Amino acid sequence: MxxxxxxxxxxxxxxxxxxxxxxxxxxxxxxxxPGPREVLIRVRAVSLNRRDLMILDGTxxxxxxxxxxxVSDGAGEVVAVGGDVSRVRVGDRVAVTYFRRWIDGPVxxxxxxxxxxxxxxxxxxxxxxxxxxxxVTIPSxxxxxxxxxxxxxxxxxxxxxxxPDRPMxxxxxxxxxxxxxxxLFGLQLAAMLGGRVIAITSxxxxxxxxxxxxxxxxxxxxxxxxWDKAVVELTSGRGVDHVVDAVGPATLEKSIRSAGFNxxxxxxxxxxxxxxxxxxxxxxxxxxxxxxxxxGSRTSFESLNxxxxxxxxxxxxxxxxxxxxxxxxYRYFRETGPFGKVVISLPA
Length: 348
Known about the structure:
By secondary structure, the protein is α/β, with parallel strands linked by helices. It has helices at 50-57, 109-112, 144-147, 150-161, 181-192, 204-213, 227-234, 249-258, 298-311, 326-336, and strands at residues 8-14, 24-30, 38-47, 73-81, 93-96, 127-131, 135-137, 173-177, 196-201, 217-220, 240-245, 259-267, 288-292, 317-322, 341-345. The protein folds into two domains: 8-149 and 315-345, Medium-chain alcohol dehydrogenases, catalytic domain (Quinone Oxidoreductase, Chain A, domain 1, Alpha-Beta Complex), CATH 3.90.180.10; 156-292, Rossmann fold. The protein is 27% helix and 26% strand.
């Protein structure tokens, strides 16, 4: 293991749930030292997800650990490794998986119950101590700020498109619903893989930006409330092959109506409780699959990173805040409706 030059490290801790950013405390803790199979990461950037707000508010389905370091998404540099570590070495640029023990295959409830930044220490700190099994190297063409956007939203969108049951192939038509970070990644990745992307949004400005990201057609839901009918018309009555629905129950019925025969509908994201009621009769005469996904495995993350590097694809970053302004980053993310990821950067 490499030597260290300091005895304390600084990080944000969630001490009071239900108080928004007032529940966060910035404090020093003892400098972490890796065990035999652990990796010490100097965090260089983190990014926020809707889930991070829900954890602050106490509305996330999984209770957070008292005093936990929040935020699942981040990237940094390996600065020390345990004696038995073989997957990475000092100097590697890495990120940490959302689920620390989900390596591959189907996820179990036990594995899904162990989450970075919720009941396992997160990334909003100078250093992150992680088991080597939960660490992945990041694409070489991405900055730390860009790579910090990947572990949750990007892996979730990638999992929706690459499901082993019916993975997307070049030429498929993909509908993306929502322009949050998961929806944007869904658009970028589908276009990257050779799909024809139809995007649902509101407003001419967003429509132009979605087109620039690779959308073949954009339907403005403000002008076209029955956007599911417009999608069917755009596909000559056939419907789409895949739906990446990052809005939730409120749009699920229209997503189902937009899908073609054997259409794959992925419902993505952490949603508040409640929502629209679904009429079971909507499935009459339809052959579709609806799935609610939970991010993805380490294997899926590694596959995503290889594809991003092959195509040179870069995430959309809305704004970068310095570490000392993390509270402002949370508030900006909650209040402004950013287009792309909100990132918090740490000094080298």
